[in-house]
Structure formats: C-alpha cells, structure tokens
Amino acid sequence: MNSAVSRPRESASAIEAAEKRIGGYDWTALASNFDDYGCAVLEKLVTPEECRELAALYPHEEHFRSHIHMARHGFGRGEYRYFRYPLPDLIAGLRTALYPRLAPVANRWNERMGMDTRYPPRHADFLKACHDAGQVRPTPLLLQYVAGDFNCLHQDLYGDLAFPLQVAILLSEPGRDFTGGEFVLTEQRPRMQSRAEVVPLRQGDAVAFAVHNRPVQGSKGNYRVNLRHGVSRVRSGMRHTLGIIFHDAR
User: Fold this and answer.
1) Domain limits at 141?
2) What's the pTM?
3) DSSP letters for the chain
C-alpha cells in the first residue's frame, strides 16, 4: 500500500520542457474546438523518437502497476498497462503541463452545466484532493492493439473525483505501423440519436477530449450531453497509444 500512496514527483526540467511545447499551441482556437466538438487535436505533441521510446516500454513490467486484457472484462479486444509512480519524465511533464490549460475549459463547462465543482489551477492540488479521497493509483496507461483488436465505447471514470478531459497520444504511424484503428468519439444528446466523430491522427498527435459530459448551447440555454470514446477495429499491424488521465483511481 505504501507504494500506491507515494506522491508523484515530477522533475523540474521535465515540467519546464513540457510547458514549453504545450505553450506553442493556439489555446484560444483549441478551446473553441472543445466547445464545438468536445475534442481538439494537438498536432505533433510528441516526436517520432519519443513515440518509439514510449511504445518500447510496453514489455517491461517494472514500469507498470497492472496489466489488463480487454476481452476478459468485455471492454473489446486488445490490452493495456497502467503506469506506476513515479511516471516516466515525459509523461509526468506532459500531465502536469496540460492540466492547467484544460482546467479553465473544465471550469467553464461546469459553470454552463450548473455544476458546483471547480478544479484548482495546479495539477498537484487536484491530485492531492484525489489522494485525500482515497484515489491514489496512477491512471496514465499504455495501450497495445494488434489486428482484430478494438476498444469498445467507454468512459474513464475511476472514482468520485474525475477530471472531465483527458488526452490520448498516438505513438504509431497509420498506414505504416497499422491500418484501421481510428479514434472514435460519440455524443448522445437528449432525445436525439448519437453522433460519431472520427478523429484522424498521425504519429505523435494528441487528441484532448471530454471524458463524460459537456455543455451544448440550445434554444433554451445550455444542456448536458453524454460522451464515450473508443477505437475502431485494427485491420493490420500493431497500434500503441499513450493515455493521459488527470485523476487518480481507487
């Protein structure tokens, strides 16, 4: 239990490097995409070399706290591993640097949906709240798919405290490393059929997206829509993805 509750320690250099690359995006335009579609793409967030290094971690169990085979749980086909603390520097830095860019979006959404929850500006403060509530297990994960694998539509909610946005980074190159395997986001609006958004990604691109709910402006004000995400069937090759979830789990 002691290893589970140890506080994450991100290096200052990793955070500084991540903040520099995160700061290069047009966050005003990205915020507009979040409001319009529930997701936004950060192109080339991670370099091809970094993608290969992250994907190469998958077979090495010392980096991970658990190993999930999706078929055993009805999640689809494929597998993933949850990282243990301390996280690799690149992942820890990106998680810390992305959070304060996304927290204002989350707070604005909650205000529009009439929800009282507000998120602190620093990720460390949000993690402390998670840990104080008994959510102490790290949630960043590395996913691996081969031909025939897919990820059912789902929501990554691991406890009472859940940050409403998360990030997935494609580590493999479509058309070279794999075919198929598109990232899919679905949105269910009240009394309407679900809408699907297929998000095209290249190696190193990240998609930030709504985990559970987001507000939509209607004729009578804002209303809440429900979102799920997944991955379509991989038709050939192998696909690796890094998932960055900002809340920790029970």
Assistant:
1) 2-244
2) 0.93
3) -HHHHSPP---HHHHHHHHHHHTTS-HHHHHHHHHHHSEEEETT-S-HHHHHHHHTTTT-GGGEEEEEEHHHHTSEE-EEEEEPSSPPHHHHHHHHHHHHHHHHHHHHHHHHTT------SSHHHHHHHHHHTT--B---EEEEEETT-EEEEE----SS---SEEEEEE-S-BTTTEEE--EEEEEE-TTS--EEEEE---TT-EEEEESSEEEEEETTEEEEEEEEEEEPPEEEEEEEEEEE-SS-B-
